Structure formats: structure tokens, C-alpha cells
Amino acid sequence: MKKIEAIIRKTKFEDVKEALLKADIEWFSYYDVRGIGKARQGRIYRGVVYDTSSIERILISIVVRDKNVEKAVQAIIKAAQTGEIGDGRIFVIPIEDAIRIRTAERGDIALYNAEQER
């Protein structure tokens, strides 16, 4: 099992959500986050200078079976990519165990409905 954390532009969240659902990734968490990026200069919009050093983004957190890692990563890349600086990052982290509280099932079967696997 792997945990995928993706930090993406807020404007791309709906596209990424749809891409993940099409890739059969039906369960994930997301959070509003702020971060510091490489861009340090202010941006001018209608005569007002805005500080762009603190960036608002969405953090998506997904735990998937090993067989689903690459399709989840590719779905995120294709949906979130603009080609501009600030598209974000994806991190893939190993997960030791998962436990479904209701049934005490352990391992990757705890991530999905066991009846669908049979």
C-alpha cells in the first residue's frame, strides 16, 4: 500500500477529483493548505500589489493498493498540469498497515469493499 499526497492549484481541484473518480479512486481526503514557493515577487492586479510568497493550494491525501499507484499518479498529473510554475508536487509514501475499524480487517482489503473483490 502507498499513500499519495498531492499539492495542487485550487483551480485544478475539480479536474483532479473527476480524473481520480474516472481512474476508480473513489476515496480520498483533501485539505486547504498554504505554502511557500519559489516565487517571491509581488504581483500587480488592477494597480494593487499582492504578496505571492504565501500560496493557497489543496492537499489531496489518498491511500491505495500498490497496483493503483501509477494510475492515480497519472490521473493527477494529467488533470493538474498547466505547464506553469506552481503546478504542485506529488509524494508517494509507503504504508505499513491499514485497519478497517468496523470489521477489524487488515491490509489492503481494509481500503475497499471486500465483497467487490470476490
From TrEMBL:
Gene3D superfamilies: 3.30.70.120
GO BP terms: regulation of nitrogen utilization
Domain of life from the UniProt record: Bacteria
UniProt cross-references to InterPro entries, sorted A to Z: N-reg_PII, N-reg_PII-like_a/b, N-reg_PII/ATP_PRibTrfase_C, N-reg_PII_CS
Cellular component annotations (GO), alphabetically ordered: cytosol
Molecular-function annotations in GO: ATP binding; enzyme regulator activity
Keywords linked to the UniProt accession: Phosphoprotein
SUPFAM superfamilies listed in its UniProt record: GlnB-like
Residues recorded with modification O-UMP-tyrosine: Y50
Record flagged with keyword ATP-binding: no
UniProt key word Phosphoprotein: yes
Family: Belongs to the P(II) protein family.
Name of the molecule in the record: Nitrogen regulatory protein P-II family
Organismal lineage: Bacteria, Pseudomonadati, Bacteroidota, Bacteroidia, Bacteroidales
